[in-house]
Write a structure and sequence with these properties.
binds flavin-adenine dinucleotide; binds FE2/S2 (inorganic) cluster; seven-stranded mixed beta sheet; 253 residues; alpha/beta
Length: 253
């Protein structure tokens, strides 16, 4: 883990209101694993005070990128940043996805901005693993498929792809017998989606890892502010340190 004043080297709008910000940091880029995150001090002033965590979306040699849309105070400030500036970034943080490749196909299930960690994951799974992506959102405008592969879409309002939620879409494909090889599921999205995905995976005996979210302050296990209950109810994990990626067998959402 490093704390580095990282130069912003690129800023792109990748689709409707979705920003990709690329930082240069040899150290963070070298150590990052898919599913890990960075904790960004979005402003050099005091406002907003707390850092904001973002999944590492892509890594290329000595740069890494984050993907976000404007949500509230922190992302509003972040969206105004330009190449040439720099921000204080701590990372890489947390435990990422396992990429043991002991499977033939990876199924990616992403809701909204939950797409963010997957370009990096896909880059590390290829070329030996087949990728299939299921992407969902409330409406067409909110679908994010940046650098995902082999995609099926679902929207709640039916404005693009199938009119259903993304886990229903996954379940439909499963019923059709589409998953014929050894499969691993990776999910990221809103908690309700992750709950449905966990249920699907456990009922059908799939190995499944999910990237979870919690309000965070420190980002590395000091403030105790991001608890997640274990599946047997016997203990609490810290999302920032023990996660954000968990196996669905281990946590109660
Ligand atoms: C491990 C981890 C990885 C993350 N990765 C990404 C990422 O790759 N891209 C990204 O855009 N965001 C990501 N987030 C969420 C991100 O850290 C911010 O919380 C989010 O972008 C909103 O920040 P903000 O300062 O704009 O909003 P705030 O000003 O903090 O919040 C504005 C309002 O939105 C609510 N709110 C804040 N965050 C969320 C949320 N996630 N879902 C629903 N309501 C919310 C708040 O309660 C508040 O009412 C991640 C969070 C975690 C914990
Ligand atoms: S954010 Fe501080 S312990 Fe997790």
């Amino acid at each position: 883990m490093y704390q580095i004043i990282s130069p912003i080297v690129d800023r792109k709008i990748v689709s409707d209101q979705i920003h990709l910000l690329t930082f240069k940091s040899k150290e963070i880029a070298k150590d990052a694993k898919p599913g890990q995150f960075v904790n960004v001090r979005v402003s050099n002033g005091l406002y907003p005070y707390l850092r904001r965590p973002f999944s590492i979306c892509e890594v290329n040699y000595d740069t890494f990128s984050i993907l976000f849309s404007v949500f509230g105070m922190g992302t509003k400030v972040l969206a105004e940043k330009k190449a040439g500036g720099s921000l204080d970034v701590i990372g890489p943080l947390g435990k990422g996805f396992s990429i043991d490749k002991d499977f033939e196909s990876a199924i990616i299930v992403a809701g909204g901005l939950g797409s963010a960690p997957f370009p990096f994951l896909i880059s590390r799974l290829k070329p030996d693993v087949n990728i299939k992506s299921f992407v969902g959102a409330r409406t067409k405008e909110l679908l994010i498929s940046y650098k995902l592969e082999n995609i099926s879409f679902a929207t709640d309002d039916g404005s693009y792809g199938k009119k259903m939620n993304v886990v229903e879409l996954l379940s439909d494909e499963f019923q059709k017998g589409s998953f014929d090889s050894k499969v691993k599921l990776y999910g990221c999205g809103p908690t309700l989606m992750l709950k449905a995905l966990s249920k699907f995976a456990l009922e059908n005996n799939f190995d499944c890892e999910i990237s979870t979210e919690a309000a965070m302050a420190c980002g590395f296990g000091i403030c105790q502010g991001c608890p997640m209950e274990s599946s047997n109810g016997e203990k609490y994990f810290l999302v920032c340190k023990d996660g954000p990626v968990f196996n669905v067998r281990d946590v109660k959402l």
